[in-house]
Amino acid sequence: MELAGADRPDRRDMASSGPAEAPGCRRALEELIGLTRPDRARELADRLFTRFGSLGGALAACPAERIELLDHAMDVERTFRCFQRVVEQVLRAPLAERPILSSDRTVHAYLRGKIAYERAEHFCVLFLNANNELIADEIMGVGSVSGVQVWPREILKRCLELDATAILLAHNHPSGSPVPSRADRDVTEKIADAARCFGIVVHDHLVVARRGIVSFRKAGWLK
């Protein structure tokens, strides 16, 4: 099944707002590069901002493309990858401390940091136990700029392997608009129907983008 992007309307009022790119982001990128290449920090930061448009875009960029722009400065690339891992763990830590459903803001922050700036669609599943505590979160599919294929049977197979009793679905829209398509809604319904046969609850499906996040549950699209 494909989550296609061709029929997405631009209705921003449906989404929770995402943070605007702060004026200090370019400076932060320059400082990050400056840890290993202080003499070229401004030049390389300008290149990355020109190509990717934001700090998040630079961090989520294809490593090969980023390395090319960095003139193959592998010490800078290693700094980027280390920083990415640190940020992801910082955002993930609160999810392990309490039931997932206790804080939308915490879940949204983690998913925004994980997939909002990816340049292809990524389909992520958070697997939960009977107390709605996080067991694992995994990328179940990577697609193109406008769609990603996912198979309900693979998601449910993983649920059974992990003894998960509930899941939270999420995927990103590289276009920047979080408004779901008809295909997004159809595939969510199919996953929820299949999960119900196994007594597994689909708590929500979040569409994550640079301009915000849309919750299927809040929109009334999950039964």
Helix content: 40-55%
Q: Tell me the fraction of residues in β-strands, as a range.
A: 15-25%
The name of the CATH topology of the largest domain is Cytidine Deaminase, domain 2
Distance between the termini: 21 Å
CATH level 1 name of the largest domain? Alpha Beta
Number of domains: 2
Structural class: alpha+beta
Question: What Rg do the Cα atoms give?
Answer: 18 Å
Task: Tell me briefly what this model is.
The protein has 223 residues and is of the alpha+beta class.
3D structure, described in words:
It is built from nine helices and six strands. It has helices spanning 25-34, 41-52, 55-60, 63-69, 74-92, 104-115, 152-162, 182-197, 216-219; strands at residues 16-17, 122-128, 134-142, 166-172, 201-209, 212-215. A six-stranded mixed β-sheet has the order 1-6-5-4-2-3, sandwiched between helices. Strand 2 and strand 3 (134-142) form a beta hairpin. Helix 1 packs across helix 2 (41-52) and helix 7 (152-162) crosses helix 8. The longest helix has 19 residues, at 74-92. Mean pLDDT is 88; it is low at 3-20.
